[in-house]
Amino acid sequence: MISITIANNDNQDLFVQVWDANQPGSPQVLSSRINQGGTQPLQVQEDSNGNGNINWAAVAANATPGQVPNTGQVTPANGDTVNVSTWQQ
Predict the structure, then answer these.
(1) Is residue 49 part of a domain?
(2) What is the mean pLDDT of residues 11-33?
(3) Nearest to residue 16, comparing CAs of 82, 88, 78?
(4) Contact, 40 vs 9, CB < 8 A?
(5) From the centroid of its chain, how far is CA 73?
(6) What residues pair up with 54 in beta bridges, in sequence order?
(7) Is 25 left (phi over 0), alpha (psi -120 to 50) or beta?
(8) Average pLDDT in the 39-61 region?
(9) Mean of the per-residue pLDDT values for the chain?
(10) For 52-60, what is the mean pLDDT?
(11) Residue 87 belongs to some domain of the structure
(12) How many CB atoms lie within 10 A of CB 58?
């Protein structure tokens, strides 16, 4: 397992979900509110190169039901910070 940090890089509180694509079935490993400017430590499975492979989705905490989240896919290394937001970075 490697340690990464999920960081809210938005100007509002977010609901964030993260899935670990290196694990069979890509289980959800985070489903949490992260306050503006806040962070959430997380451990994910590393691949043969020592990197993670995660998919994430973020939506504003005050979003209306059915609002489509912003999504991303990242291959972080141990100790990396993954910035999430409701806009494309």
Answers:
(1) yes
(2) 97
(3) 82
(4) no
(5) 9
(6) 20, 74
(7) left
(8) 97
(9) 95
(10) 97
(11) no
(12) 25
pLDDT of amino acid 19:
98
Q: Which domain holds residue 51?
A: 2-78
Provide the pLDDT for residue 11.
95
Token duo for residue 32: 């949490």
Q: Quick one: CA torsion of 80, 26, 19, 30, rounded to 10 degrees? A: -110
**Residue 85: inside a domain, yes or no?**
no
Note whether residue 89 is domain-resident: no
CA pseudo-torsion sign 63, 84, 4, 56:
positive
- If one counts the domains in the chain, the total is 1
Query: What does the block give as tokens for 53?
Result: 């492979």
CB within 8 A of 35, min separation 6: which ones?
A: 8, 13
What CATH number is given to the structural domain containing 7?
2.60.40
Gap between the Cα atoms of 45 and 21, Å rounded: 8
